[in-house]
Design brief:
Strand 3, helix 4 and strand 4 form a beta-alpha-beta unit. The chain is built from six helices and nine strands. It is α/β, with parallel strands linked by helices. Helix 1 runs antiparallel to helix 2 and helix 1 crosses helix 3. It has one domain: Rossmann fold.
Length: about 210
């Protein structure tokens, strides 16, 4: 009950108050138990207006940025969405409340194992997980209606663009290792159209078409 109240306050004060209006996104954020996606020691901070560590030098994003990116993706109930960087699993769970199927890729094995177990416990049967380098996407399952990247890339990985369906959208942070711009791509018959949604800060996207481990 306590966490449910905190969740509703989070949506009202952090999300709606900053202009996120998509009713599907707001409903998903009110439903997904964010406190279960962080360690027990951090549960009372789970609905605060800030990111939190989840181990392996990774973070669960600030609730507002999850909401902003999800709204920018324009998810529909029949969509198949690819997420690069499962992390805590929270972003995938929010998407799973809205879309037909979420395909999520994680390169850090302990996080991959932990989130797969959590998805099963929460009965997110429409989330498909993969342990792999996310910068190459998931070619066997493409093309996708939406692609969301939850780590900062030096440039937009070409393999991800090629796996985006015509009419598809991609949301990805692009920049250096310390700060990025949140970029939305829209793909139609005439090509790729980009919109800059403003500054953001994510952990770096590591992989063949991202940053190196160092």
């Amino acid at each position: 009950m306590k966490y449910e109240r905190q969740r509703h306050e989070m949506v009202k004060n952090q999300i709606e108050a900053r202009g996120v209006t998509d009713s599907k996104v707001l409903a998903a954020l009110r439903k997904v138990p964010r406190h279960l996606f962080v360690s027990e020691a951090l549960r009372d901070q789970a609905y605060g207006d800030f990111p939190l560590p989840i181990g392996e030098q990774q973070t669960i994003s600030q609730p507002y940025i999850v909401a902003e990116m999800t709204q920018a993706l324009q998810p529909g109930e029949g969509d198949r969405v690819l997420e690069i960087g499962t992390g805590s699993g929270y972003q995938a769970a929010v998407l799973a409340e809205i879309v037909f199927r979420v395909y999520t890729v994680e390169r850090i094995y302990p996080l991959f194992v932990k989130t797969r177990k959590l998805f099963d416990e929460l009965q997110y049967h429409n989330i498909v997980t993969k342990y792999s380098d996310g910068t190459v996407g998931w070619e066997d399952e493409g093309s996708f209606d939406g692609i969301i990247v939850t780590a900062g890339a030096p440039e937009i990985p070409k393999f991800l663009v090629s796996q985006l369906a015509v009419g598809g959208r991609m949301v990805i942070p692009v920049g250096n290792q310390y700060s990025q711009e949140l970029i939305k791509l829209y793909k139609n018959e005439r090509g790729i159209h980009k919109t800059n949604l403003g500054g953001c800060r994510f952990v770096k996207l590591v992989g063949e078409y991202g940053w190196s481990e160092q």
